[in-house]
């Protein structure tokens, strides 16, 4: 049986995390620089929208996720970042749906 699209996506996320974590230092955690590279390389459209390429956005996201304040992002902390990204993507999707609906029904 082949993996579903969601299963394949989950595997790709895990693989991506470990690929970037292995770049420097502890191979089980992401540094701030590794996180920046992961986000810019793998979600470029998202990072390009709404000023997310600004250094402070990634730094603030890193600091909020770093629950134990060790200046590293473990996989569990990375899941927090993924959650924030999915929330933002969902909000963008809903805004686009609403704008499309409003345009179709002359609500603007």
TrEMBL record:
<dbReference type="GO" id="GO:0070062">
    <property type="term" value="C:extracellular exosome"/>
</dbReference>
<protein>
    <recommendedName>
        <fullName>EF-hand domain-containing protein</fullName>
    </recommendedName>
</protein>
<dbReference type="GO" id="GO:0046914">
    <property type="term" value="F:transition metal ion binding"/>
</dbReference>
<dbReference type="InterPro" id="IPR011992">
    <property type="entry name" value="EF-hand-dom_pair"/>
</dbReference>
<dbReference type="GO" id="GO:0048306">
    <property type="term" value="F:calcium-dependent protein binding"/>
</dbReference>
<dbReference type="GO" id="GO:0005737">
    <property type="term" value="C:cytoplasm"/>
</dbReference>
<dbReference type="Pfam" id="PF01023">
    <property type="entry name" value="S_100"/>
</dbReference>
<dbReference type="InterPro" id="IPR018247">
    <property type="entry name" value="EF_Hand_1_Ca_BS"/>
</dbReference>
<dbReference type="InterPro" id="IPR013787">
    <property type="entry name" value="S100_Ca-bd_sub"/>
</dbReference>
<keyword id="KW-0106">Calcium</keyword>
<dbReference type="InterPro" id="IPR002048">
    <property type="entry name" value="EF_hand_dom"/>
</dbReference>
<dbReference type="Pfam" id="PF13202">
    <property type="entry name" value="EF-hand_5"/>
</dbReference>
<dbReference type="InterPro" id="IPR034325">
    <property type="entry name" value="S-100_dom"/>
</dbReference>
<dbReference type="GO" id="GO:0043542">
    <property type="term" value="P:endothelial cell migration"/>
</dbReference>
<feature type="domain" description="EF-hand">
    <location>
        <begin position="53"/>
        <end position="88"/>
    </location>
</feature>
<keyword id="KW-0479">Metal-binding</keyword>
<dbReference type="GO" id="GO:0042056">
    <property type="term" value="F:chemoattractant activity"/>
</dbReference>
<dbReference type="GO" id="GO:0005509">
    <property type="term" value="F:calcium ion binding"/>
</dbReference>
